[in-house]
Design a protein that fits this description.
alpha/beta, Spore Coat Polysaccharide Biosynthesis Protein SpsA, Chain A, seven-stranded mixed sheet, two-stranded antiparallel ribbon, 11 helices
Length: 248
Amino acid sequence: MILAILQARASSSRLPGKVLKPLLGKPMLARQIERILRSELIDKLVVATSVEPEDDAIEKLCKEENIECFRGSLNDVLDRFYQAAKPYNPEHVVRLTGDCPLTDWEITDRLIKFHLIGDYDYSSNALEPTYPDGLDAEIMKFSALECAWRLADSKPEREHVTLYIYKHPIQFKIGKEKNSIDLSQLRWTVDEPEDFVLVENIYRNLYYTNPAFKTQDVLAWLEANSKMKTINTVYKRNEGLNKSLGEL
């Protein structure tokens, strides 16, 4: 079984409530769920949020979308993620984050195939980024996740689910999936107001004619609307992770 877990929380210092911001009349998180469910290789999707009252709205959204929701620790995200996966006893677990409404299911499936063919313990398309920021995905054997859950003991390792795994390449077989073209300079995640402006414009111009628009459709639109391409590129990739790594 391949289980996908989508991490989401309402609290965000840079753009509060971003996952619930309306995107063409539905919460941004619901738009991302819609795209993830197009995957041909993911068997089940679970949203993992916190037990904090502000995340009640995420649980409510999941009920409306008929998606299972697990609630756990706000700060020990590794424990939340592991506890969300454990009841299903999956062979592999895909990790996605709720600030990526342009998630491309075909790119996620490509990573899953790469992971399975290579028999990796953990695979990512973002360790050496070649995709736009916001198309990141990770997949790991459940046994690797369980090992990290048992052994990770630093605050950054508990906050960032897979940090322990990819920081121990001797212990785990690591796979790095890459795109044929380097598009890592593009920013399609949502952490800042400008990020949401970009995503909202993409949805308004693509979704109505093709709800299943893909990465190549976004790239074509950006080529025709070049001013939008760099509206948010002043922000650094993985700012939160890099800050945590400084604490190690």
